[in-house]
Amino acid sequence: MFGTTTIVSRSFLVILILLTLYFLGMDLLLYSRIQNYNIRPMSNGTQYVSIVPCDINPLCTVTVKGLMLDYPNYFLLSPLAAVMDNLLQISNSWTWITPNAISCFHVLIAVIAGKCISSDSLSHRRLGVVLFQARTWLDDLDGHVARKRANIYGERSDVGSSGYIVDGICDALGCVALLIGLYQFLARNSSRRGGYDKLPQLPVSSVLEPGNVTSKTSNTALRNILLMTVHLFLTSATWNRYISLYQDLLETDYRTPSITKEHLYAKQTTIFRSLSFWIIVLCWKFINFHAVMDYVLLAIFFDRIREYMKLVRWSSYVVILLLVYVTEFHFLRAYAYVQGVPSFIDEEISSSDVFTQG
What DSSP letter does each residue of 236-267 carry, written as one string? Predict the structure, then answer.
Protein backbone atom coordinates (compact mmCIF):
# COMPACT_ATOMS: atom_id res chain seq x y z
CA MET A 1 0.00 0.00 0.00
CA PHE A 2 2.81 2.39 0.92
CA GLY A 3 4.67 1.53 -2.30
CA THR A 4 1.59 2.20 -4.42
CA THR A 5 1.04 5.55 -2.70
CA THR A 6 4.67 6.52 -3.35
CA ILE A 7 4.41 5.57 -7.04
CA VAL A 8 1.22 7.62 -7.45
CA SER A 9 2.80 10.62 -5.72
CA ARG A 10 5.94 10.46 -7.86
CA SER A 11 3.95 10.01 -11.07
CA PHE A 12 1.77 12.98 -10.21
CA LEU A 13 4.87 15.02 -9.39
CA VAL A 14 6.33 14.26 -12.84
CA ILE A 15 3.05 15.34 -14.47
CA LEU A 16 3.10 18.50 -12.36
CA ILE A 17 6.63 19.36 -13.54
CA LEU A 18 5.69 18.79 -17.19
CA LEU A 19 2.60 20.99 -16.82
CA THR A 20 4.70 23.71 -15.20
CA LEU A 21 7.06 23.70 -18.18
CA TYR A 22 4.07 23.83 -20.55
CA PHE A 23 2.54 26.77 -18.67
CA LEU A 24 5.87 28.62 -18.68
CA GLY A 25 6.23 28.12 -22.44
CA MET A 26 2.68 29.29 -23.09
CA ASP A 27 3.22 32.36 -20.92
CA LEU A 28 6.30 33.31 -22.94
CA LEU A 29 4.33 32.88 -26.17
CA LEU A 30 1.52 35.02 -24.74
CA TYR A 31 3.98 37.77 -23.80
CA SER A 32 5.49 37.72 -27.28
CA ARG A 33 2.02 37.77 -28.87
CA ILE A 34 0.98 40.85 -26.88
CA GLN A 35 4.19 42.75 -27.52
CA ASN A 36 4.26 42.13 -31.29
CA TYR A 37 0.65 41.89 -32.49
CA ASN A 38 -2.59 43.81 -32.26
CA ILE A 39 -4.51 43.70 -28.99
CA ARG A 40 -7.04 46.40 -29.83
CA PRO A 41 -8.10 46.93 -33.49
CA MET A 42 -5.43 49.46 -34.51
CA SER A 43 -5.01 50.28 -38.21
CA ASN A 44 -1.20 50.44 -38.03
CA GLY A 45 -0.77 47.21 -36.06
CA THR A 46 0.08 43.65 -37.07
CA GLN A 47 -2.72 41.10 -36.98
CA TYR A 48 -2.13 37.86 -35.08
CA VAL A 49 -2.67 34.77 -37.26
CA SER A 50 -3.23 31.39 -35.63
CA ILE A 51 -2.97 27.98 -37.28
CA VAL A 52 -5.08 26.59 -34.42
CA PRO A 53 -8.80 27.52 -34.24
CA CYS A 54 -9.12 30.59 -32.05
CA ASP A 55 -11.75 29.09 -29.73
CA ILE A 56 -9.06 26.54 -28.74
CA ASN A 57 -5.99 28.77 -28.88
CA PRO A 58 -5.82 30.99 -25.74
CA LEU A 59 -3.35 33.32 -27.50
CA CYS A 60 -5.81 34.58 -30.13
CA THR A 61 -7.91 36.99 -28.10
CA VAL A 62 -6.17 38.94 -25.34
CA THR A 63 -8.47 39.85 -22.45
CA VAL A 64 -8.01 41.11 -18.92
CA LYS A 65 -9.71 38.06 -17.42
CA GLY A 66 -7.54 35.70 -19.45
CA LEU A 67 -4.38 37.42 -18.24
CA MET A 68 -5.55 37.30 -14.61
CA LEU A 69 -6.81 33.71 -14.77
CA ASP A 70 -4.75 30.92 -13.23
CA TYR A 71 -2.56 28.79 -15.49
CA PRO A 72 -4.50 25.48 -15.40
CA ASN A 73 -7.79 27.17 -16.29
CA TYR A 74 -6.46 29.43 -19.04
CA PHE A 75 -3.92 27.19 -20.75
CA LEU A 76 -5.38 23.72 -20.15
CA LEU A 77 -8.97 23.39 -18.97
CA SER A 78 -10.49 26.13 -21.15
CA PRO A 79 -8.92 24.77 -24.38
CA LEU A 80 -10.06 21.26 -23.42
CA ALA A 81 -13.59 22.58 -22.88
CA ALA A 82 -13.47 24.15 -26.36
CA VAL A 83 -12.25 20.87 -27.86
CA MET A 84 -15.12 18.98 -26.20
CA ASP A 85 -17.63 21.55 -27.46
CA ASN A 86 -16.27 21.25 -31.00
CA LEU A 87 -16.49 17.46 -30.87
CA LEU A 88 -20.00 17.25 -29.42
CA GLN A 89 -21.36 20.54 -30.84
CA ILE A 90 -22.98 21.38 -27.50
CA SER A 91 -23.22 25.10 -28.26
CA ASN A 92 -24.86 24.60 -31.66
CA SER A 93 -26.84 21.36 -31.48
CA TRP A 94 -27.53 20.56 -27.84
CA THR A 95 -29.54 23.71 -27.21
CA TRP A 96 -31.46 22.03 -24.39
CA ILE A 97 -28.23 21.98 -22.37
CA THR A 98 -27.94 25.49 -20.96
CA PRO A 99 -24.83 26.95 -19.29
CA ASN A 100 -26.83 27.24 -16.05
CA ALA A 101 -27.68 23.52 -16.23
CA ILE A 102 -23.97 22.68 -16.55
CA SER A 103 -23.25 24.98 -13.58
CA CYS A 104 -25.84 23.20 -11.43
CA PHE A 105 -24.47 19.80 -12.47
CA HIS A 106 -20.94 20.66 -11.40
CA VAL A 107 -22.27 21.49 -7.93
CA LEU A 108 -23.35 17.83 -7.67
CA ILE A 109 -19.85 16.74 -8.71
CA ALA A 110 -18.39 19.04 -6.04
CA VAL A 111 -20.61 17.46 -3.36
CA ILE A 112 -19.38 13.99 -4.33
CA ALA A 113 -15.80 15.29 -4.30
CA GLY A 114 -16.31 16.79 -0.85
CA LYS A 115 -17.62 13.46 0.42
CA CYS A 116 -14.50 11.70 -0.90
CA ILE A 117 -12.21 14.31 0.63
CA SER A 118 -13.82 13.76 4.04
CA SER A 119 -12.66 10.13 3.96
CA ASP A 120 -9.80 8.79 6.08
CA SER A 121 -8.53 6.94 3.01
CA LEU A 122 -5.85 8.81 1.08
CA SER A 123 -6.98 7.07 -2.12
CA HIS A 124 -10.52 8.37 -1.64
CA ARG A 125 -9.24 11.87 -0.93
CA ARG A 126 -7.18 11.77 -4.11
CA LEU A 127 -10.27 10.66 -6.02
CA GLY A 128 -12.04 13.68 -4.51
CA VAL A 129 -9.28 15.95 -5.85
CA VAL A 130 -9.69 14.50 -9.35
CA LEU A 131 -13.48 14.91 -9.16
CA PHE A 132 -13.16 18.51 -8.04
CA GLN A 133 -10.86 19.25 -10.96
CA ALA A 134 -13.52 17.70 -13.20
CA ARG A 135 -15.95 20.17 -11.62
CA THR A 136 -13.55 22.99 -12.51
CA TRP A 137 -13.44 21.76 -16.11
CA LEU A 138 -17.25 21.77 -16.24
CA ASP A 139 -17.12 25.34 -14.92
CA ASP A 140 -14.92 26.22 -17.90
CA LEU A 141 -17.30 24.37 -20.23
CA ASP A 142 -20.38 26.31 -19.09
CA GLY A 143 -18.49 29.58 -19.60
CA HIS A 144 -17.35 28.53 -23.06
CA VAL A 145 -20.88 27.52 -24.13
CA ALA A 146 -22.35 30.77 -22.78
CA ARG A 147 -19.78 32.93 -24.59
CA LYS A 148 -20.09 31.04 -27.86
CA ARG A 149 -23.89 31.32 -27.91
CA ALA A 150 -23.60 35.04 -27.15
CA ASN A 151 -20.84 35.51 -29.79
CA ILE A 152 -18.37 36.70 -27.15
CA TYR A 153 -14.73 35.96 -28.00
CA GLY A 154 -12.02 35.24 -25.46
CA GLU A 155 -12.22 34.99 -21.68
CA ARG A 156 -14.59 37.72 -20.50
CA SER A 157 -16.90 38.21 -17.54
CA ASP A 158 -20.44 39.30 -18.41
CA VAL A 159 -20.73 41.16 -15.12
CA GLY A 160 -24.30 41.56 -13.84
CA SER A 161 -25.94 39.01 -16.15
CA SER A 162 -28.07 36.17 -14.79
CA GLY A 163 -25.50 33.63 -16.01
CA TYR A 164 -22.72 35.48 -14.18
CA ILE A 165 -24.72 35.39 -10.94
CA VAL A 166 -25.72 31.72 -11.28
CA ASP A 167 -22.14 30.74 -12.09
CA GLY A 168 -20.88 32.63 -9.04
CA ILE A 169 -23.42 30.97 -6.75
CA CYS A 170 -22.59 27.51 -8.11
CA ASP A 171 -18.86 28.13 -7.68
CA ALA A 172 -19.49 29.19 -4.09
CA LEU A 173 -21.58 26.08 -3.38
CA GLY A 174 -18.88 23.85 -4.84
CA CYS A 175 -16.27 25.54 -2.66
CA VAL A 176 -18.47 25.11 0.42
CA ALA A 177 -18.88 21.38 -0.35
CA LEU A 178 -15.10 21.00 -0.53
CA LEU A 179 -14.53 22.90 2.72
CA ILE A 180 -17.17 20.88 4.59
CA GLY A 181 -15.55 17.64 3.45
CA LEU A 182 -12.13 18.95 4.45
CA TYR A 183 -13.42 19.99 7.88
CA GLN A 184 -14.92 16.56 8.50
CA PHE A 185 -11.61 14.92 7.66
CA LEU A 186 -9.56 17.26 9.86
CA ALA A 187 -11.98 17.07 12.78
CA ARG A 188 -11.78 13.27 12.91
CA ASN A 189 -8.02 13.02 12.88
CA SER A 190 -5.19 14.09 15.13
CA SER A 191 -2.61 16.67 14.10
CA ARG A 192 0.06 14.06 13.39
CA ARG A 193 1.62 14.10 9.93
CA GLY A 194 0.45 11.28 7.66
CA GLY A 195 -0.77 7.91 8.86
CA TYR A 196 -4.43 8.97 8.67
CA ASP A 197 -5.46 5.73 7.04
CA LYS A 198 -4.29 3.78 10.11
CA LEU A 199 -6.22 5.84 12.65
CA PRO A 200 -9.53 4.52 14.01
CA GLN A 201 -12.53 6.30 12.54
CA LEU A 202 -14.67 8.24 14.98
CA PRO A 203 -18.20 9.45 14.32
CA VAL A 204 -18.51 13.24 14.09
CA SER A 205 -20.91 13.24 17.04
CA SER A 206 -18.26 11.76 19.32
CA VAL A 207 -15.81 14.43 18.24
CA LEU A 208 -18.14 17.12 19.47
CA GLU A 209 -19.07 15.53 22.82
CA PRO A 210 -18.11 17.67 25.83
CA GLY A 211 -14.85 16.59 27.39
CA ASN A 212 -13.89 14.41 24.43
CA VAL A 213 -10.13 14.47 23.80
CA THR A 214 -10.71 15.24 20.13
CA SER A 215 -12.75 18.39 20.78
CA LYS A 216 -9.57 20.46 20.64
CA THR A 217 -8.76 19.00 17.22
CA SER A 218 -12.30 19.80 16.08
CA ASN A 219 -12.06 23.40 17.27
CA THR A 220 -8.69 23.84 15.58
CA ALA A 221 -10.06 22.38 12.35
CA LEU A 222 -13.07 24.71 12.48
CA ARG A 223 -10.87 27.74 13.07
CA ASN A 224 -8.59 26.84 10.17
CA ILE A 225 -11.53 26.21 7.83
CA LEU A 226 -13.12 29.54 8.79
CA LEU A 227 -9.84 31.37 8.15
CA MET A 228 -9.57 29.66 4.77
CA THR A 229 -13.20 30.48 3.92
CA VAL A 230 -12.75 34.18 4.68
CA HIS A 231 -9.53 34.25 2.68
CA LEU A 232 -11.21 32.58 -0.32
CA PHE A 233 -14.11 35.05 -0.15
CA LEU A 234 -11.71 38.01 0.05
CA THR A 235 -9.64 36.66 -2.83
CA SER A 236 -12.69 36.03 -5.01
CA ALA A 237 -14.26 39.44 -4.31
CA THR A 238 -11.10 41.45 -5.01
CA TRP A 239 -10.11 39.39 -8.06
CA ASN A 240 -13.54 39.86 -9.65
CA ARG A 241 -13.48 43.56 -8.77
CA TYR A 242 -10.24 44.22 -10.63
CA ILE A 243 -11.26 42.08 -13.59
CA SER A 244 -14.38 44.26 -13.90
CA LEU A 245 -12.46 47.53 -13.49
CA TYR A 246 -9.65 46.73 -15.91
CA GLN A 247 -12.11 45.16 -18.35
CA ASP A 248 -14.11 48.40 -18.48
CA LEU A 249 -10.91 50.44 -18.85
CA LEU A 250 -9.05 48.38 -21.44
CA GLU A 251 -11.68 46.49 -23.44
CA THR A 252 -14.38 49.10 -24.12
CA ASP A 253 -14.64 52.12 -26.44
CA TYR A 254 -15.63 54.51 -23.65
CA ARG A 255 -13.57 57.73 -23.90
CA THR A 256 -13.73 61.46 -23.33
CA PRO A 257 -14.68 63.66 -26.33
CA SER A 258 -11.09 64.91 -26.65
CA ILE A 259 -9.72 61.39 -27.32
CA THR A 260 -10.15 59.72 -30.72
CA LYS A 261 -10.89 56.01 -30.91
CA GLU A 262 -7.50 55.29 -32.48
CA HIS A 263 -5.77 57.22 -29.68
CA LEU A 264 -7.81 55.32 -27.08
CA TYR A 265 -6.81 51.98 -28.59
CA ALA A 266 -3.17 53.06 -28.58
CA LYS A 267 -3.34 53.97 -24.89
CA GLN A 268 -5.11 50.72 -24.00
CA THR A 269 -2.45 48.78 -25.90
CA THR A 270 0.26 50.67 -24.01
CA ILE A 271 -1.24 49.56 -20.70
CA PHE A 272 -1.48 45.95 -21.86
CA ARG A 273 2.20 45.99 -22.87
CA SER A 274 3.54 47.84 -19.84
CA LEU A 275 5.77 46.04 -17.36
CA SER A 276 3.73 47.29 -14.39
CA PHE A 277 0.53 45.77 -15.75
CA TRP A 278 2.29 42.47 -16.45
CA ILE A 279 3.55 42.32 -12.88
CA ILE A 280 0.03 42.97 -11.58
CA VAL A 281 -1.64 40.27 -13.70
CA LEU A 282 1.15 37.79 -12.99
CA CYS A 283 0.57 38.22 -9.25
CA TRP A 284 -3.16 37.67 -9.71
CA LYS A 285 -2.47 34.52 -11.73
CA PHE A 286 -0.89 33.00 -8.63
CA ILE A 287 -3.22 34.47 -5.99
CA ASN A 288 -6.72 34.44 -7.52
CA PHE A 289 -9.55 32.29 -6.17
CA HIS A 290 -9.02 29.41 -8.62
CA ALA A 291 -5.26 29.32 -7.99
CA VAL A 292 -5.78 29.15 -4.22
CA MET A 293 -8.21 26.25 -4.70
CA ASP A 294 -5.55 24.50 -6.79
CA TYR A 295 -3.05 24.87 -3.93
CA VAL A 296 -5.54 23.37 -1.49
CA LEU A 297 -6.20 20.43 -3.81
CA LEU A 298 -2.46 19.82 -4.25
CA ALA A 299 -2.01 19.80 -0.47
CA ILE A 300 -4.83 17.29 -0.12
CA PHE A 301 -3.44 15.07 -2.88
CA PHE A 302 0.04 14.97 -1.34
CA ASP A 303 -1.43 14.51 2.17
CA ARG A 304 0.07 17.78 3.43
CA ILE A 305 -3.07 19.79 4.09
CA ARG A 306 -2.21 20.53 7.73
CA GLU A 307 1.24 21.84 6.82
CA TYR A 308 -0.29 23.97 4.08
CA MET A 309 -2.95 25.47 6.33
CA LYS A 310 -0.36 26.27 8.99
CA LEU A 311 1.83 27.95 6.38
CA VAL A 312 -0.87 30.22 4.92
CA ARG A 313 -3.01 30.76 8.02
CA TRP A 314 -2.09 34.45 8.40
CA SER A 315 0.42 35.10 5.63
CA SER A 316 -2.30 34.66 2.99
CA TYR A 317 -4.13 37.72 4.35
CA VAL A 318 -0.99 39.84 4.27
CA VAL A 319 -0.29 38.84 0.66
CA ILE A 320 -3.81 39.52 -0.66
CA LEU A 321 -4.13 42.88 1.13
CA LEU A 322 -0.73 43.99 -0.16
CA LEU A 323 -1.69 42.97 -3.71
CA VAL A 324 -5.01 44.84 -3.43
CA TYR A 325 -3.15 47.99 -2.36
CA VAL A 326 -0.67 47.79 -5.25
CA THR A 327 -3.40 46.96 -7.80
CA GLU A 328 -5.59 49.84 -6.65
CA PHE A 329 -2.65 52.22 -6.97
CA HIS A 330 -1.85 50.92 -10.48
CA PHE A 331 -5.45 51.05 -11.67
CA LEU A 332 -5.93 54.67 -10.62
CA ARG A 333 -2.77 55.68 -12.49
CA ALA A 334 -3.76 53.62 -15.55
CA TYR A 335 -7.25 55.18 -15.52
CA ALA A 336 -5.74 58.66 -15.38
CA TYR A 337 -3.45 57.82 -18.30
CA VAL A 338 -6.24 56.45 -20.52
CA GLN A 339 -8.40 59.48 -19.76
CA GLY A 340 -5.60 61.83 -20.80
CA VAL A 341 -4.00 62.74 -17.46
CA PRO A 342 -0.16 62.32 -17.41
CA SER A 343 1.00 59.54 -15.06
CA PHE A 344 3.80 57.10 -14.40
CA ILE A 345 2.78 55.10 -17.47
CA ASP A 346 4.21 57.93 -19.60
CA GLU A 347 7.49 57.57 -17.74
CA GLU A 348 7.56 53.85 -18.55
CA ILE A 349 7.06 54.62 -22.25
CA SER A 350 9.88 57.15 -22.34
CA SER A 351 12.27 54.98 -20.33
CA SER A 352 11.99 51.75 -22.33
CA ASP A 353 11.27 50.80 -25.91
CA VAL A 354 9.35 47.77 -24.62
CA PHE A 355 6.33 49.95 -23.98
CA THR A 356 5.92 51.42 -27.45
CA GLN A 357 2.33 51.95 -28.47
CA GLY A 358 2.42 49.57 -31.43
Answer: HHHHHHHHHHHHHHHSS----TTS-HHHHHHH
Phi-psi group of 161: left, alpha or beta (phi > 0 → left; psi -120 to 50 → alpha; rest → beta): beta
288 Cβ contact list (under 8 Å, min separation 6): 68, 69, 70, 235, 236, 239
pLDDT tens digits, 11-27: 888 888 999 999 999 99
Residues 307, 272: Cα–Cα separation, whole Å = 38
Q: Which of 264, 60, 219, 224 is nearest to 155 (CA)?
A: 60
Distant-in-sequence, close-in-space partners of 98: CB < 8 Å, separation ≥ 6: none
The runs of H, that is alpha helices, within the chain are: 2-36, 64-68, 71-72, 78-88, 99-117, 122-149, 162-188, 204-207, 215-250, 261-273, 275-287, 289-301, 305-312, 315-338, 344-351
Query: Which residues have a Cβ under 8 Å from the Cβ of 236 and sit 6 or more positions away?
Result: 288, 289
pLDDT for position 204: 46
